[in-house]
């Protein structure tokens, strides 16, 4: 380990910590893994949460390390140590205090999160990071959860298969109010449909409480499920809930009339989920839904998606 890192971390010398920024990134790059391991030891000490000097030293060193990793593009080399430090934060209290101030370990987790997860397009890094990342979704820190959800959504674009093993955890987070993760579900459905199928009714119950972008991601999920003919797992508690969902779908449909791609998604859901015959006890609502669909078609507002037209079903 570089002698300045050894001095600052070994003696927890706050007065010299700032000098780390005077060193070239290439000069300290070989020392980063060892420095991260030393930080893990310091942050795991029994008095770390009350030791302001140690916290300041760790904060400065993490900033210097993550900067060097980015500048030298050496994330894959140091990912194991970085994720190891990140994981150690899960063993500590991450809930904000009464003043909404992050705990010392929540600060560490937040400081290194972007350094790890901005590399969502690097599979070797994501293989290490995602199993740890999803654990932060249920640790009582809303800000960490929100930022984590943003990065997981990006990861789903390129490496949905790595998220698929954690579908159950993701769905539970959504049902607990983390609607941002709805955008992940259409991507992971292909790999892990069953955890989602089990909760389709609960997920659709969220519809009236969602913002329009979130509604669209939920409708995309139902569209994917419809194409896979998995909507037999779908049910409503009452005609009222069915009618309310139909109303939400039609409202979305009319609002996005100029977006053909979005129209196809919503129509696929309506034709598949709500057409008469899908559920006898809801027949009246389903007939009404079919009437609205046919009226819109006659008026030139939309056409049933080819794969869902009555003659093909």
| Shape, principal axes of CA atoms | elongated
Cα separation of the termini:
67 Å
SS-based structural class? Answer: mainly alpha
- Which residue ranges are poorly predicted, with pLDDT under 50 across at least 5 consecutive positions? 305-313
Order of helices and strands: HHHHHHHHHHHHHHHHHH
| Percent range for β-strand residues | under 5%
Characteristic key phrases:
313 residues; mainly alpha; 18 helices
Structure in words:
The protein is an all-alpha fold and 313 residues long. The chain has 18 helices and no strands. The protein has a domain at 207-295. 63% of the residues lie in helices and 0% in strands. The model is unreliable at 305-313 (pLDDT under 50). One of its GO terms (biological process) is regulation of signal transduction.
Topology, pairings included?
Layout lengths: L2 H8 L3 H4 L7 H4 L3 H12 L8 H21 L2 H15 L14 H14 L5 H11 L8 H17 L1 H5 L2 H9 L9 H5 L3 H5 L2 H5 L7 H16 L11 H17 L4 H14 L9 H16 L15
Helix pairs in contact: 1-4, 4-5, 4-6, 5-7, 6-7, 6-8, 7-9, 15-17, 16-17, 16-18
């Amino acid at each position: 380990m570089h002698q300045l890192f050894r001095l600052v971390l070994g003696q927890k010398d706050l007065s010299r910590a700032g000098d780390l920024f005077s060193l070239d990134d290439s000069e300290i790059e070989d020392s980063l893994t060892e420095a991260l391991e030393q930080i893990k030891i310091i942050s795991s000490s029994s008095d770390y949460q009350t030791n302001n000097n140690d916290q300041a030293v760790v904060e400065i060193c993490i900033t210097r390390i993550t900067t060097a990793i980015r500048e030298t593009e050496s994330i894959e080399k140091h990912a194991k140590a970085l994720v190891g430090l990140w994981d150690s934060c899960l063993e500590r209290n991450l809930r904000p205090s009464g003043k909404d101030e992050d705990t010392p370990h929540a600060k560490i987790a937040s400081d290194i999160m972007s350094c790890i997860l901005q590399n969502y397009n690097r599979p070797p890094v994501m293989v290490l990071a995602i199993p740890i990342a999803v654990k932060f979704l249920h640790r009582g820190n809303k800000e960490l959860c929100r930022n984590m959800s943003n990065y997981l959504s990006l990861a789903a674009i390129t490496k949905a298969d790595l998220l698929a093993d954690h579908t159950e955890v993701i769905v539970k987070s959504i049902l607990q109010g983390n609607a941002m993760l709805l955008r992940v579900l259409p991507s992971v459905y292909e790999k892990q449909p069953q955890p989602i199928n089990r909760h389709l009714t609960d997920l659709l119950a969220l519809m009236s409480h969602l913002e329009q972008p979130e509604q669209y991601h939920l409708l995309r999920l139902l569209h994917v499920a419809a194409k896979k003919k998995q909507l037999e797992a779908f049910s409503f508690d009452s005609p009222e809930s069915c009618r309310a969902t139909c109303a939400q779908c039609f409202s979305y449909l009319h609002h996005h009339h100029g977006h053909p791609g979005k129209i196809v998604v919503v129509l696929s859901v309506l034709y598949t989920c709500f057409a008469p015959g899908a559920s006898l006890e809801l027949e009246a609502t389903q007939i009404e839904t079919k009437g609205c669909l046919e009226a819109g078609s006659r008026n030139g507002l939309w056409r049933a998606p080819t794969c869902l037209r009555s003659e093909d079903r």
